Amino acid sequence: MGTLTDIPGILVGHATNLEAATGCTVILCEQGAVPGVAIPGSATGTEETEMLKPGHVTDRIHGVCFAGGSAFGLEAASGVRHFLEQKGIGFATRSGPVPLVAGAILFDLGMATRGVRPTREMGEAAAAAASGKPVEEGAVGAGTGATVGHLLGPACMMKSGVGSASIQAGAARVAALAVVNAFGDVIDPSDGRIVAGTRKTAGSSEFANTADAVLSGSTSGFTREHTTLVCVATDASLDRVQASKIAQMATAGMARTLSPAFAMSDGDIVIVLSAGASKAPIDSIGVAAARVVAESILRAVRLAPAMRGVPGLRTR
């Protein structure tokens, strides 16, 4: 089905610390891309999101940095800016280029080694590793310490990571990358079954069904640190208003696959990058965006191996 790098001009790189179970993922658009954003989460950790919205004076951005480490991980975006500055890429000013990089983080501190978080150096390394090759998926980059199914606490959750997909929407290509660290379960919309999520007990392979448990009032073991980070890219030509509409429509893919979606403690965000000149109806692009977001979320859990005693679906 392809990955985010199917969009010409979009590069993706990871920096992964497997030993410490954390990392970051960088998406570069060195020629610039028109951005858009939707923030359905109530607990986001971000920087430079204002420049993604309609009405901002800049017309394009140059990168996105997703990182673990909770708020500490926002530091990684500084490394991406430094990398791009050294290449002469950025918003032109009389004092030189200023790279415009948006950042968003997820909470992996429960999985990661205490005190080890993505740093500026890690962000720069991920940017330096960015290429147009198919995106590496699973427990890599920002998804290294990602998990899902948090209702009953760490003993009953499952491993997640990074997933990516792309499809054609008429004359335009639309792709997504998702880093899934969701409170709830991941659902396959084709049959409504739970793919990964909260297990009934530490040793069980049966699912508790997070949505049903929440509906009945259960909050046992509940934690308040969850996030799904998404980047959608297209080779279609969009303005900021259109790009933000695509981001809004793309959240439908999250609603189809995350149960419950957009919980009070989820920090979900969708960033859109328009990096081409193709023409396609906005609604077609939006429908495609929702579809590739759903597929990316499914791939994020299906390609994640077990780590640190947390079971995963991928077998080595």
Q: How would you concisely characterize the structure shown here?
A:
By secondary structure, this protein is α+β, with helices and mostly antiparallel strands. It has helices at 76-86, 120-129, 210-215, 240-257, 282-302, and strands spanning 11-17, 22-38, 46-47, 61-67, 101-105, 147-148, 158-159, 162-169, 172-181, 185-188, 193-196, 227-236, 258-259, 269-278.
Model description:
The chain has 316 residues and is of the alpha+beta class. The chain contains five helices and 14 strands. The strands form three sheets. Strands 1, 2, 3, 4, 5, 8, 9, 12 and 14 form a nine-stranded mixed β-sheet that branches. Helix 1 packs across helix 2 (120-129) and helix 4 (240-257) packs across helix 5 (282-302). The longest helix is centred in the C-terminal third of the chain and has 21 residues, at 282-302. 62% of the residues are buried.
How many extended strands?
Answer: 14
CATH names the topology as L-amino peptidase D-ALA esterase/amidase
Summarize the biggest pleated sheet: 9 strands, mixed
How many domains make up the coordinates? Answer: 1
Low-confidence stretches: none
**For the CA atoms, what is the radius of gyration?**
18 Å
Shape: globular
Terminal CA distance reads 22 Å
Please, what is the average pLDDT?
A: 94
Assign the structural class, choosing from mainly alpha, mainly beta, alpha/beta, alpha+beta, or little secondary structure: alpha+beta
Spell the H/E element sequence: EEEEHEHEEEEEEHEHEEH
If classified by CATH, what would the architecture be? Answer: 4-Layer Sandwich
Helix count equals: 5
What is the CATH superfamily label?
L-amino peptidase D-ALA esterase/amidase
CATH class: Alpha Beta
In percent, how much strand structure appears in the residues? Answer: 25-35%
Helix content: 10-25%
